[in-house]
Amino acid sequence: MALRVRKAVLPVAGLGTRFLPATKVIPKEMIPVIDKPVVQYAVEEARAAGIEEFIFVTADGKESIANHFSGHPVLERMLTEKKKNAELQLVREATLPPGAMHLIKQHDPLGLGHAVWCAWELVGDEPFAVILPDDMVLSQTPCLKQLIDAHARVGGHVVAVEDVPRDQTNRYGILDIAGDQGTLTKARGLVEKPAPDKAPSTLAIIGRYVLDPAVFKELDRHTRGAGNEIQLTDALNRTLATVPFHGLRFEGRRYDCGTRVGFIEANVAFGLANPEMKDQLRPIIERLLSL
Ligand code: UTP
Question: What is the SS3 assignment for 1?
Answer without folding.
Answer: coil
